[in-house]
Every structure is written in structure tokens, then in C-alpha cells.
Amino acid sequence: MYRSLGLLVLMAAVGGCATKPPATSTASSMEAAPTGAALAPPLIPREVLFDNPSRSSGQVSPDGRWLAYVAPRDGVLNLYIAPSDAPDQARPVTHDRGRGVRTFGFAYDGKHLLYPQDDGGDENFRIHAVNLLTGEDRVLTPAGSRAMIAKLTPKHPDAALVMVNDRDPQYFDPVRIDLASGRSERVFENSRFGDIMFDDDLAVRFAVQPTPDGGNTVHRRDGDDWQPWITIGADDALTTMPLGLTRDGSTLYMFDSRDRDTAALVSVDLATGDRRVLHEDARADVDDLLVDPRTGVIQAAGVNYLKTEWTVLDPAIADDLAYLSGLGEGEVMIASRTLADDRWVVAQMTAEHGTRYWRYDRARRHAEPWFHTRPALEQYTLAPMHAVEIPSRDGLRLVSYLTLPAESDADRDGIPAEPVPLVLWVHGGPWARDGFGFNSIHQWLANRGYAVLSVNFRSSTGFGKAFLNAGNLQWGRTMHDDLLDAVQWAIDRGITHADKVAIGGGSYGGYATLAGLAFTPDVFACGVDIVGPSNLVTLLESIPPYWGPMRAMFATRMGDPDTGEGRALLAERSPLHQAHRIRKPLLIGQGANDPRVKQAESDQIVQAMQSHGIPVTYVLYPDEGHGFQRPPNRLSFNAVTEAFLGRCLGGRVEPVGDAFDGATITVPHGAGFLPGLPEALAAKK
């Protein structure tokens, strides 16, 4: 019902690093497995961490009749349903053969599941409706366009409001679709709004229009006209936004950072205009909500500083949350609730045990285990994660997450007995954040003998607008300084040695990797770039059309390519123009269909490095987009990554084995820089 922070951020999946190895490398081929510490736990197979989960994303239908989840069918993720009173009688209702079904939701009609699907990672998602009884899978939105569900409501259970840009690729029109027949009706033609909000009667109520300065104006519908209602300046644009309406349409909820630093949860009485702060926290933004499915009233607010902390606003659920907090270690998330609110699906996540799902009966106040997303993890030793605060050189507090090899963290204090190699893994966005909990990358690399550090550098979301805005126009500068300060912190604490630090990440994390190797070539021993932009000018000139309304935001926060000054700044911060300074090993991973960071971003820096005679290994997947979604592709890329890190930092390496089988991996350049890679490519099935 309520919108989360709908940023069109640059995100990514898993990746790794390689070029010509240093002379001190310990592994001689992709099959070599350096011996780890004597007390190191057994290797966790990559397949256990990165193949499809056994099940995930459990939900209960609004009417309580059905349970649904995502699980592999013939090796590809698909949707399964089961009667609520017989969860073991599950059956598949989709048969996707490509990239798999990842997300879904129940319609209120009790007959359909809705899910989005794109083609090869192009992110032109089409909305599907699959009939729970007949298995008929109908595509509701046209090909060649991008669609998203805007509103489902029990008042109109047979309808879905969908936003689709089939008429104008820049703007999304609201379209009402009849689920039974598939017939659609365009509500109106949108030519200026980036977001549109509806009430439970499916009436248009509010819309958000980006402004030239990078801010927003919220308009309120008045008959057939729109009236400006709230102006949000650029400094508040990513921390102030309307969220949704109560079911009776009388109250609007907002995140609001105006006149404060962190985003508070605010309610607005639409009849009187009265505004009330429901919850705020000086440390971090309110960023998660629990909503009564019957009334739409917010019942609890979540704030995530080091970890998520919930504040109950409605006493009616206080005892429920208290009971669920007693299920055991880990953060609890309410994943799904029936419309009658008598049954919940609850996800419980811990750094050392992964994610478990429970079915909760409110009347009996009793939770039953449902499934573990990766049950094979339970036979392996996972490492604890430490939430830490790292000071930046100019006085900011960088909330970060550190995982050490389990054998090095026997005292569970985050300080190894002896320094170990470290991988700095940088999140995408950059308007996103890292958080506490199970992290497959952290567990994988820690199991191989590395410390893993993820830093919420300035520009990361969730820590107030001052922290967020401190990163404006600072790509490759103070944002990068924060990463360098975190590395120095780890060195000073005896976590790692200065010559044993790698950097890696996806999207913005890929950019940070390229920037790290180009701008500070002596800091990192090697780098991993997954779908990272190399030239900020060409990045902004090739954004998807539907990002057009947000172009002013990018100009404000990154630099304006339409001005001489802004273009010069963007060029200065582009690793492409400093590619000749790279001298440490580099692996680049790219999806050919990426609509956000296009293949050209990787092509051009590879070409620049070639022209200067600098070795680089370039891995390209023809059927992937912004990150690697197909399990064979993930496993193949991670096998390359692991072998490279073993040569770069000396950690343990699981042999490639059959990790390349079924993958579409290609290596347009530099396969020979990682011994054993050409042979592995030749042997793949």
C-alpha cells in the first residue's frame, strides 16, 4: 500500500576481480586451492550461497486461503502455491524458462497472482496475471514498454491500476486493468509527473512533479485540475515524500525531513490540514512501516541505524511483536498479512543462519516454522557480522558492517588474532545503503579467509539529509575519501595489512572500484567492477528515457552535463580519463542488456586500458542486465572472482568444477591474464 523510497538508483548483483596477477600470487590456475588456516572451517560451496534458494518470498493471500512462494522449477525460479491449511501440498503455477520469477503479489480477487517479468535484463517489465486455479498466465501490459503495479485494493478486487510508458517512454500513464478479461482503460495521459497516488476507490489524489532544481512539487487533485500542494526543495527531495492514504482516504502519510535532519513519519489530516509527527529519530530516518491491512493505519515505524529498531504506534500489535521477538536471534520482518489480519507470514533473518519463514496465527499467538531459504547453510559455520561506526576525516560517522573469517573471530570482537586480507565491498546506488544481517557476499569471502567491510559512505540513504547531501557533487572525491578512511581504520585496528586490501562492488560500487584503482592506484591490491560506469558524462547521456523526469536530480547530485562547468566536473571524476594510471589487477563484469549502465561503459575503459597496454579481464554476459540474475551466470562469474582473489590476496579457492556449465559467460578480452580461465571456458557445457 505504501511506497518505499522509489529511487531509480544504480544497483547491482554479485561480482569479482582480475588481470595479470602480481608476482607474489599463490595460485597458479583456476583449479588451484591455496591452503587456508589450519582451523579454518570447511569451504562453503558457491552453489550453496549463490544458486537459487530452495524457497523464498513467502506470502499469504489476502483471503487467507493460499500460501505462495518462489522456488526452482527445472532450475529456474517460479511461483508455487499451496492451501494455507496444507502447506506441504504446494504446486507450481508458472513455468518460466529464462531469468525466473523474482517478485509477486496476490490480487484481492482470490484468483490471481501478479508478477513482473522482463526480457534478458532489459528492465522493460511486463505485468503477468496467473490464475491460481487454471494456471492460465496472461500478460497484461504491452511489449516494448515498462510497467509497474500502482494500486490494488479490496474495494475493487477485480482490478489493478498499473503505470505503463507505452505511449511516451519518458512518462508513465495510469491504466486500469480488469484481471478477469485483461481489458485495459487508460485513466489519463501523463506528461509531467514522476509518481501518481491513488486512493482505495482508485481515484487519482496526488502526484509528484520534479522541479528544475532537483526538488519536487506535490500536486493535489482538484476536480479535473491539479493544484500545487507541497514544495520540496532539492535538499529534502530524497527524504521527503508522500507514502500513501488510509483506506478511507482521510489521512495521508509522509516521510518528511523538512525543518529537521532525519526523515520523520508524519500524518496529514486532509480535511483540516493538521500535521502530526508520529515518530522520528535523531540518528536515522524512519524507513520501514507496519500497516493495518484493514484500515491502512500505520501501526509501527522502523528506524535502521546500526540495526532496525521498531516503535509500536498501535497497542493492538504490541503483544504480537513482543511474541515474535522471542522466536530467537535475528531481525523479524512481517512479510505478509491477511486482510482480516488473523494470519501473518514472518521472515526472521540472522547474519549467521540466513532467513527463516514462519506462519503466525494471531488468535492463538503461535508461530510455526515454514521454511528456510537456504537449508544447506545449516551444516556450515557462518561468520558473525559486526555493526561498527567509523569516523571520517571530517567528522562524519560511517555506519559500516564488518565480517571476519570465523576462525579469526573466535572472541567475536571484530579483531582478528592476526591481520587478514580485506575486501572492501561497496554498495550500489549510491542512494542506497548497506544493512545488518545475512549477506551472501560477506559469508562467501569470509569463508575464503578474507575480512569483508561494507561502508555507508556519504550519499548513502537512511542517515538524514545532511549525511545524504554531503555527497552532492562528490563522486570520486569525499565519497571516495570515506572509503579510504574506512580502509585506514581497518589497518590501524590490526584487521588487515595495507598491501592486502581489494575493492569491489556493483554499479556505484563498480564505479568506486574503477575510481579506486585509477585515482588512488597505490591503495588497493586489485579491484572488482560489476556494471560500473567509467564515464559519468556518457552515463548521464544514456540514461533510460523513463529517468528523464529525474535528470535534474542527477545534475544536482552528480554534476550537470548540460553546462560547461558541470561537464568538466563529470569528466574529472570519470575513471575512464585516468585509466592509464591503473596498474593493479582488474576484473570487469557486464551484462549486455543493461539499460542503466550500458555495455559501452565497460567497453570503453577496457579499450582505454588496451591502448595503454594495461592488462584487464573483461567478462560479458549476452543475456544479463544490471547484475547477473541467472544462477549459472552468477556461479560462473563468482568462480572467476574467487580464483582471482586467491591470486591477488592469497585466500582459499574452491575449484571451478562445473561452475561454467549452463552459463553464457564470454570473455571478450583478457582471459589469458587469469591462468586456467581459457581452459575452463573451453570445458564448459
TrEMBL record:
This is Dipeptidyl aminopeptidase/acylaminoacyl peptidase. Residues 1-18 form the signal peptide. One of its GO terms (molecular function) is aminopeptidase activity. The keyword Signal applies. It comes from the Bacteria. Residues 438-651 form the Peptidase S9 prolyl oligopeptidase catalytic domain. The lineage of its organism: Bacteria, Pseudomonadati, Pseudomonadota, Gammaproteobacteria, Lysobacterales. One of its GO terms (biological process) is proteolysis. Keywords: Aminopeptidase, Hydrolase, Protease, Signal.
